[in-house]
Amino acid sequence: MSAPVVAVLGTGIMGAGMARSLRRAGLEVRVWNRSQDKAAALAESGATVAATPAEAVGGADVIITMLTDGPAVLAALTAAAGGLTDGQVWLQTSTVGVAAATELAAFAGANGLDLVDAPVLGTRQPAETGQLLVFAAGSDRAREKAAEVLDAVAARTVWLDQDPASAAATRLKLVVNSWVLATVTAAAEAISLAEGLGLDKRIFADTIAGGGLDSPYLQAKAGAIANGDFSPNFGLATAAKDARLILGDAEQAGVRMDMLAAVAERFQRAIKEGHGDKDMAATYLVATTESDRRDS
Ligand SMILES: NC(=O)c1ccc[n+]([C@@H]2O[C@H](COP(=O)([O-])OP(=O)(O)OC[C@H]3O[C@@H](n4cnc5c(N)ncnc54)[C@H](OP(=O)(O)O)[C@@H]3O)[C@@H](O)[C@H]2O)c1
Question: In this predicted structure, what is the pLDDT of residue 288?
């Protein structure tokens, strides 16, 4: 079997990294992005830059969507309709929530696409190095056709269900992200509390380093906060979108998410303060009552 041709729709932080990982694996890659400069930057990796979603997907074996949310994915795929062909595999890797995942499965069914609900865990660097963790729900046929693509972008793929309309992968992604968003916010608060109580802002992460409470993720985010480096790996506005999705799906399920509701509120405050384009670690920047005073 010849190597699959891959179309990547959406070359933001994650899509660009994934496209480069696919090129490094020697696959033919077409890229499209709404703001063309971000797709054009991938030409030097050997990717072909497409002017429209339809041009990108035409003749591709595997389509990857890596866009902000469900409406953005649906808009891009609808615009791609002229280039879609029966049996193309569609790896839907954006985080979209259960309702949108179900809607996208219906679109795939109506357009003859072999959908894999395939949200990813991992941020800018794992995307760039092909080390993502993919949660996947899709058919064995799609799994086989997408194998080389998944090998190129992921360290591991966890297959959960044969039916993408189950949104099983999306459900697991929401579960894991509820912990991620809470962890970052808890770390930011602990660091602010240390400072407020007259301690060094590195003391919290340094004290738990290497012990049972530690994690590489916590050290990475605490380090970014301590260094004042809020360049985006996971944008705060994107994280706020995830918080909304989690709260919506939790409510549907009758699950109270008191902590995540507080996180979502705090992210909204950070967006209002102009931090939406920064990394979500910038939740730290609204940790003091000073920001409340600015609001009132
Ligand atoms: N960053 C992470 O750590 C991470 C990890 C796992 C999963 N995710 C998920 O991956 C997805 C992408 O995240 P990201 O971090 O790569 O975000 P990003 O850098 O902000 O990229 C978002 C992409 O979506 C596009 N887009 C947004 N609205 C659109 C619309 N209406 N029509 C067409 N294109 C649209 C953007 O186009 P423009 O460039 O034109 O704005 C851009 O290509 C999200 O669902 C996110 O939740 C992110």
Answer: 77
Domain 171-295 has CATH 3.40.50.300: no
- Which stretches of the chain score pLDDT less than 70? 1, 290-296
Q: In the structure encoding, which two tokens stand for residue 225, read together?
A: 């906060």
Whole-number pLDDT of residue 290: 66
> Ligand 1: does its nearest atom lie under 6 Å from the Cβ of 35?
yes
Q: What's the pTM value of the predicted model, to 2 decimals?
A: 0.96
The per-residue pLDDT for 2 is 85
Which atom of ligand 1 is found nearest the CA of 123? Answer: 3
- Tell how far the Cα of 149 is from the centroid of ligand 1, in angstroms: 19
Q: What is the pLDDT of residue 227?
A: 97
User: How do residues 30-40 score in pLDDT, each as one tens digit?
Assistant: 999 999 999 99
Q: Where in the chain is the domain with CATH 1.10.1040.10?
A: 171-295
Q: Does domain 5-166 have CATH number 3.40.50.720?
A: yes
Distance CA 266, CA 15 (A): 27
Beta-ladder partners of 5: 28
